[in-house]
Amino acid sequence: MKRTLLTGNGAAAWGARLAAVDYVPAFPITPQTEIIETLADWIDAGEMAGRLVTMESEHSMITAAGGAAATGVRVFSATSSQGLLYAMEMLYTVSGWRAPFVLVNVSRGLSSPITLEPDHNDILAARDSGFLQIHCASCQEVLDSTLMAYRLAEDERVRLPVIVNLDGFYLSFTREPVEIPDADAARQFVGSFDAENIRFRASAPESQAVAVLGGGPYSYFRYETHLAAMNGLAVYDEIADEFNECFGRKHEAVEAYKADDADYLFVMMGSFATKAREAVDRLREEGWVIGLVRPRLLRPLPAARLQQLLAGRKGVAVIDQNISMGMGGVLHSELASVLYGRNDAPPILASFIGGLGGRDISTEEFFEMAQAIRQAVESGQTPPPRLLYTQTELREVRKLQAIAQVERSTLST
Amino acid sequence: MTDKNHTIHSIKDLPSTHLLGTGTPMCAGCGALDAVHQIYDILGKKTVFVNAAGCMTLLSVYPFTPFRGSWLYTAMASAPAGAQGVRDALDILLQQKRIDQDEDLEVIVLTGDGAAYGMGLSATSGTMERKLDYIYICYDNEGYGNTGQQYSGATPHAARTSTSQGVSGFAGYKKNLFDIWAAHKPAYVATVIGADPLDLAKKIEKARSIEGPRMILVLSPCPTGWDYDPRETVNIGQLAVKTGVWPLKEYVDGEVVHTRIPRQRAPVEEYLKLQGRFAHLFKPQRNEALLAEIQAKVDAYWEKVPIQGK
User: Which of B58, B62, B111, B146 to mutate to test the interface with A (most CBs of A within 10 A)?
Assistant: First the structure.
């Protein structure tokens, strides 16, 4: 084991290398590209076995990934944002093949308008695809989660592809100290991929992914996939324990920070949750009894764990780094559905949306959100969902618009 | 890819055992199924068919398949990419000695013209630039047949389809997929038709003996889409060749060779008049201008074909 500075992208590449992947279908996209460049360098230099093939699109990349996994080799791939959406048809398709592999997604806001910096609308668009999802908040987690993801994906009770998600720029390009597990220990932890009957061999013909006629067989296969995903909850916990035993780091399905005694909670996913963590410390200094809950596993959703962690709190602020147009925050909706009808559910579950396209969420805003839920608790009224945005930001946009107007009128005269 | 020999020289050499099962849901007289039967007899069961959305997707409906070998349905646009994944994985398994050579499979893409001429072209092009070792079979029924024959990039000029019902039929022209493929310089490109089993068999056998991307374009007369009596499938297929509408040719080592040159080409209208999709060229009155235009296109093609062949 060695400790070194790695970007999130570098950590993802190390995860793939330590998992001894056989095959990497690839396609470049910012901010993911460093992952495939790193793997290509290692393979070219002979430092890593395996084969990398650059495809002509992410749609093809996921098809090739599924095809190779369905033939029985260990597959890794990576994408981001528009790439994930371009591949969306195949995400749904290959998960139904029950051919396990790991895909790293480096979150980036979706077009329109086209942008580079992160939010979670890309990864949440894949929420119902059949891929399981692990969301990371540190570079260490990216590496560790990639190793764990192979165990989860390949487990005979699961057999589904897994996405490991990290935020563009905030993790992808940020160097953090990362412990790189010893190669032998990592290989022993991940094990070798036993494809069992998921393979193509001349001596044992197999029809995979065939059409069905009618809702009966269709529902059968869809339910099977759902039940396999649900199996992932218990399997994940086993893997997390084993990982902890092997490497001394515990990555729970849901991370709780200073939550034990907390009256109030922030709930957030991904690297922006580290901002909430910092805010919790500052708020506690000011006398707040507040904590943070961060789901790492989003699919399958650790509902029981979330119910338990949120039970009996006075108020909860769910901060979504995504926006479902015409509805609001996706995580907020998920938590509301998990908590509905429970006697011990927190009376206030308030929704905030922020961090879109990499927009910062300042400590002041966390203080403001804490105030908002306290007031809601006092008044007994859940506030309407709030879109985090400041007067200054609005002024800046107005200024850009004014400049554009001036430029246009100058050109037209 | 075990048998590298060429054993098919005459009609007597064609396989006498037929491998593809019967009872599929294809339409009566399906020209594509006719060709797939013949192709499968030569390629055999040590194959995995990677399928794109189209009529042939219904060959394998859970839990049945007419194939003795393997099958993987992908999606409409990316069957060649699926073939890439399967081929690469088999190569990795062979290289790592995780499987024996006799467990290897020939990877075959089976796709319709809707995918091949349109949304699947990018993925197909990608496999050719990467020199993927596979066989690509496009059954071309000149329209989106499985959805009721809307026009596609493969639809010939003037054909009536369910989205070109006007008096002149389809205003566009059939895309030259053969040349688009050949421009990639793959290992092999050939046109075939089920109505010429010997030419088809020789080409599939040749394709099988070569490594790299091997591209097969099959004109597939379609009774439902082209609107003719199913019994006419072979006749129409033969007329497509005799009239010069469907040149049988192959591209290999940078050269295009015509494998059948009709000595005296029959008039194109003999081919057209059997098909309801061209009925508006004859009734209520003959559309001489359009018929002449279609004939002129065919003549112009053959004028450029050098005198060659056997």
Answer: B62
pLDDT digits (tens, 9 = 90+) for B167-226: 999 999 999 999 999 999 999 999 999 999 999 999 999 999 999 999 999 999 999 999
User: Collapsing DSSP states into helix, strand and coil, what is residue B29?
Assistant: coil
Residues of B in contact with A73 (CB under 8 A): 89, 92-93
Residue of A nearest to B106 (CA): A202
Q: Report the CATH number at residue A162.
A: 3.40.50.970
CB proximity list for B261: less than 8 A, separation 6 or greater: B305, B307, B308, B309
CB A201 to CB B105 under 8 A? yes
Indicate yes or no: pTM above 0.90. yes
Say what the ipTM of the complex is.
0.96
**Pair A75, A118 in one domain:** yes
Core vs surface per residue B271-305: b (16+ CB within 10 A) or e: bbebbebbbbbeeeeebeebbeebbebbeeeeeee
Give how far B25 is from chain A: nearest CA, Å: 12
User: How many pairs of residues across A and B have Cβ atoms under 8 Å apart?
Assistant: 152
Q: Do A72 and B81 make contact, defined as CB atoms within 8 angstroms? A: no
| Alpha helices per DSSP H over chain B | 31-43, 79-95, 113-114, 121-129, 177-182, 197-209, 223-226, 233-242, 268-272, 288-303
The pLDDT tens digits for A276-329 are 999 999 999 999 999 999 999 999 999 999 999 999 999 999 999 999 999 999
CATH architecture of B11-303: 3-Layer(aba) Sandwich (3.40)
